[in-house]
Structure formats: C-alpha cells, structure tokens
Amino acid sequence: MNVLLIDGHPDEGRYCSFLMEEYRVALPAHAKITAVALRDLRFDPNLAHGYRQRTEWEPDLLQLAEALDACDHLALAFPMWWGAEPAMLKGLLDRLFLPGFTFAYHDQDTFWDRNMAGRSADVIITMDTPPFFLWLVYGNAVIRRWKGQVLGFVGFKPVRILPLGQVKFGGAEKHAAKWTGKVRRLAQTIRQAEPAKKEPRLERFLNRKKP
Fold first, then answer.
1. pLDDT 10s digit of each residue in the chain, 211 long?
2. Residue 69 and residue 202: Cα distance in Å, rounded?
C-alpha cells in the first residue's frame, strides 16, 4: 500500500506536524510512505490563467503529482483558518488538481470522471472552533467541502475527516491522549472502497498536455 502524507501547515514544528508523525508511526508495517511538508515545496500557488492556459508545474509539483498518482491512500493535516485551509494549501489544490489529471469534465454534459477513484483519504483538521459549534453554527462547511467538493469530487473514497478542537486554551494538552488515539486509529484502519478502479493518470495527462 502506497501512502502519501502531506503536512499542510505553512510553519514548522506545529501541532499538525506532531499529528502527522503520530499517523505515520501507526501505519501498517507494509505501507510504503511518502511524506511531504507543504512549507518545503517551492511553487507559485496562483493558477494565473485558470484552465484557459497551461501553467507549467515546478519540479516540486511534478514530484508531488507522481506521488499522488501512485498512492493508494492520501492523508493530510492542516489548521482551519477563517473557515478553510491555509492559502498555500488552497494554492496547491488549484495548481495540482487539474482537469485531465485528477478529474475530467465530459464534453457533452455537465458530469465528470473521478480520476482518483480507487484511492482513499484521511483529513485531520485542527481548529480553535469546538467541533460542535462548527456543526451547529457553520454546518460543518469545511468538512463538507473537503469531503464532497474536493477529495470526493475527484474520486477519493472513503474520505474520512477528523476535526480536532478547541486547540487553544490548553485543549491540545487536555485532549492529547484522546486525539492521538483517534489519529492512530485512522492510520490503522485504512481501506479503499473500490481499489480495482485505481488507474495511473499522470503520464496520460502530461502527454496530452504537450503542444
């Protein structure tokens, strides 16, 4: 099983990094792990021309695309800021999750192909908002988006979301054992809903994009 781990915090030594390490050590012994810290990547997060004109991938993005294409399971962690992920992680989505690679629109209707089918995903979100408040007041917006409009949209299944909060006011220390236990259980219970549907997509995408 190929597992891609992405630490989505823009700063080093933060709680997300600790949680991703807890996730990594709890993975099955047979897992082949690729670990990436988003802050270490060098790329322009701005998709300047949208989908109208190709923006070439920097070497770091190409290497990450190769790992994403090869993975059976994706796990990432990020802090929720202003109801969403940090800007650099949003930029990564814009630059990496391109039509023809992670998904493909149909020419004759409004539907699309989920090119990442056969892969599964876990998302760990740290926040200062208590999860019950996120659900009650905001309708779990960030969770619904990542599950349905991001990872589910391109075919990851199942997509499991673990919201952890309230981190401030000593929450991380108070709930340390419980939260790390939940993270470890995620790593120990990975399954792909439809592994037979996994197909390599990157080479076809790169060749199609050549002028």
1. 999 999 999 999 999 999 999 999 999 999 999 999 999 999 999 999 999 988 899 999 999 999 999 999 999 999 999 999 999 999 999 999 999 999 999 999 999 999 999 999 999 999 999 989 999 999 999 999 999 999 999 999 999 999 999 888 888 888 889 999 999 999 999 999 999 999 999 999 999 755 4
2. 6
d(CA 80, CA 128): 8
Note if the pTM is more than 0.90: yes
Q: Does 63 sit behind a cis peptide bond, omega within 30 degrees of 0 on the bond before it?
A: no
Residue 155 amino acid letter = G
Nearest CA-CA partner of 76 in 32, 129, 35: 35
DSSP the chain: -EEEEEE--SSSSSHHHHHHHHHHHHS-TT-EEEEEEGGG-------TTTTTS--PPPHHHHHHHHHHHH-SEEEEEEE-BTTB--HHHHHHHHHHS-BTTTEEE-SSSS-EEETTTT-EEEEEEEESS-HHHHHHHHTTHHHHIIIIIIIHHHT--SEEEEEEE--TTTHHHHTHHHHHHHHHHHHHT---S-GGG----HHHHHHHH--
* Partner residues linked to 105 by β-bridges: 112
